[in-house]
Amino acid sequence: MPKGTETAHLFASGHTACSGCGQSLGARLVMRAAGRNIIATDATGCLEVFSSLYPFSAWEVPWVHSLFENSAAVASGIEAALKYLGKLDQVRVIAQGGDGSTADIGFGALSGLWERGQDVLYVCYDNEAYMNTGVQRSGLTPYGATTSTTPSGKLSFGKAQQKKDLPMIAVAHGVRYVATASVAYPFDLDRKVKKALGIIGPKYIQAYVPCPLGWRHDSALTIQLAKLVVETGIYPLFEYEDGKLVGVRKIGKKKPVEEYLRPQGRFRHLFETEAGKTEIARIQALADANIERFGLIEKPKDLQKPQDIIEKPAEKAAPTLRGFTPKELSTFDGRQGRPAYIAYKGKVYDISASPLWRGGIHQDQHLAGRDLTAELAEAPHGEENLAGLPVMGELLP
Amino acid sequence: MVRKMLEGSQAVAQAVALCRPAVICAYPITPQTHIVAELADMVASGELKSVYVNADSEHSAASVCLGASATGVRTFTSTSSQGLLLMGEVLFNIAGMRLPVVLSCVNRAVSAPLNIWNDQQDSLSLRDSGTIQLYAENNQEAADLIYLAYRVAEDHRVLLPAMVCLDGYILSHAWEAVEIPTPKEVDAFLPPYSPLYKLDPEEPRTFGMYANPEVYTEARYMLQRAMEEAVTAIQEASHNFELIFSRPMPGILEEYRTEDATTVILGMGSLVSVAKDVADELRGQGEKVGVVKLVSYRPFPKEMVYEALKGASDVLVLEKGISLGSAGPLLLDVRSVLHGPHQPRVRGFVCGLGGRDVTRQTIKAALAEKELVDARFLDLKADLELEGMGQANRDRQPALARGARRKRAPRKEGINSA
Predict the structure, then answer these.
(1) Which CATH code fits B253-413?
(2) Model ipTM?
């Protein structure tokens, strides 16, 4: 578990999700990363149904479900209320939905939320179909997958369209932080949620969550498939900040898409006929295009340490740097309205604007006004979290 | 208390502002838009400290209010017609979650054909949503019912959404002298909203749970009970209103010259004013005619309606909407409390649809009707065959029968031909 994260399960056990459910894992990771000071919304769907059967609730955080298509709008209302109450900097808002509610029926509300620039993190748990209603095709169902409404047959290879590129639609809205994630990389998801919550404005994370029931795979394979989808290039993990690509998870050696497709019943038809090979080749071409587009293979690195494989964004060129003695630095402790600075590898950063550093304290253990070089080395995130922060000067010995 | 010349929309907006909602969220639709534009102005000028959210649809507008209300603050939205229907799904949900969202509905006809003028089909169609519905006769009432709506909706015995309905254009765009109370007077009537439960990290709660057959019936039963409680809450609040504002507040219903009336006209909204004129005129001719203005359509105040009508021999229900295939929904409600053998005859009339004026003649035509009708359309044109509108029917007729039909309307641009 990443350090500095909530130890209690804010999305508790005892819910009624299927074994191997990727979405329940996703929700647990997101809640753990977010901590207690949030209000979460949820759309109608599996997550809502398996977590909130009256009188039981898996949610240890304030949580509201209203309808299928309004998770984003309800979150808008919560944000507006918190703004009115002056609590928006203490309580963060997270909207959640499955791929159907996010990309299809709730898309208007989501687009409205983004366009208004409201301070909400929207998390889409993408299991690539309407699972709660019995596996129907959604706008995020991938090419070639069978669902109950895109069955394979003499005239069909499953879904004939590609997945709606929702992350790029988010980027086009000017969403401040857009990232894809997969439950096979919990540290990466954790870091992305924390990073998103530190940003003021709309944020979008699309987390890939396998569904053993809907995809017809062994429930023991959930994590393996969530890895393979990334390693094949089918589901690239990337981050956009203010419209710029700032991070990509490299995949090392490319794996053929067959490795990912074969264990899943929803793609089985592709392996049964000669013509299916053409479809697999098409899916391979889509994966190759992702590899090319996001540069997933160049400079392969050790996959064990996520912070190492994030492409480091160029640091902003600082003007003439002011020198801070450790004593001077300690006066910038973020308390009682004072600015909050921290030092890292000789540089002094201004973290006053970060909601993750309210009152000059981060995750209840790190204090502003200090040199945190050693502490950051131990942190679940790397120094990339300092990127974009104003550099105020240099730390003097 | 200040007396001002105000457009109906302005009167509503000023009343809303005096209730100080934390979050206002709406989507534009005619003829409602003046209300929220007025509120947006107040927010822009700093006069009103609300957060104003421009929604992407009425569905989202109602959902924003739902989210804000669940966070424990007072909210407001406003809509009309299609907008209200689009909100419909959310209103059922808001009621089920027991959130006291207040909205105004500037009543407008429902499409098709498209029509932006007044009737009450929009709000009547949402009678089963669990939303309290209060109908204003004039602009003063439209404003006053806003204060009442907040107080009743937020009453812990009730906790339901409440909608103030005012007739589009007839009220919303008409200028009348309206008494606007001081903030102090409103505060004396309307305490700050204190939610029973709210979304709060200090005390995490789960809202909007999933209910299986073991508990769903009970949840719905509690809603029905809350609606019944709302009758009492409206009565109490109306009484209190009259004490504080020194102005009548017929929160449930108003009886006009019904004391010895043998014929009573019952209706909602602005048509009641015309009915009162007719009653005055006929009283002058010695006829014992009275009027009952129903303000609270939901909850439907069964006992008060019974008490107001039991002495009459003839009751005419006039309404601006219909439950197609049945009768006027208001007629059905009124009849449901007057079904005994010695009860008055209750007859139903549909009028004032899509902006057609309800005049004294309209009401007199109803009074002249002798049959026990359920859904007699008043002021109906004799020739129904408007070009285009009758097309589907005409095509089904055999050629001979077609020739035998009544004269056609003169050829003109078809209403559906565009």
Answers:
(1) 3.40.50.920
(2) 0.92
